[in-house]
Amino acid sequence: MEESDRNNVPTPSAAGQGEFETVELAGGCFWGMQQLLRRIPGVLGTEVGYAGGQVRNATYRNHEGHAEAVRVRYDPRQLPFEQLLRWFFRMHDPTTKDRQGNDRGSSYRSAIFYHTEDQRRTAEAFIDRLNQKGQWGAPVVTEVKQADQFWRGEEDHQDYLEKLPRGYTCHYLRPESVLGDGTGGKP
Prior knowledge:
- The chain has one domain (24-166): Peptide Methionine Sulfoxide Reductase, Chain A (2-Layer Sandwich).
- Helix content is 24%, strand content 21%.
- It has helices at 3-6, 30-37, 81-91, 117-133, 160-163, and strands at 21-27, 43-51, 67-74, 99-100, 103-104, 110-114, 143-146, 150-152.
- Strand 4 and strand 5 form a beta hairpin.
- 37% of the residues are buried.
């Protein structure tokens, strides 16, 4: 397999095999995002990389236009997409454009790269609710874009905080109250 194809392997989704779905989530530095996402019940696997830009074979040193993102494979029977979004919107500040913590630039933007139309509709409706009822104090600037190419990050970035538990992260879970619905995720 050529290098240009190695990082851009299609993955099954609800529209495909139905065993798992895939989405790329960007919310700042991918190290901290991956660490929190990997621990959510129903998440089957994660890998960090680059999404949303035009640079082919993106790398840490050459990913202009891409966001640092985490590819998440999850079981929608155990973790419905809306529940995954409840976690996502608590682990980063979706109101800061091109910034999370000390990290600044478009690589650190908030974005959802959807693989199915159902994911798109769910994400847009969730953001609308956050803007109406959420407790962020500013409008949500999270981009919702169709997934295109995902370039897997270098091996030293994969599972970074597992390898270096004291490594840098600006991610933490905010209380459910920031979502503004008072349900705690229960229907």
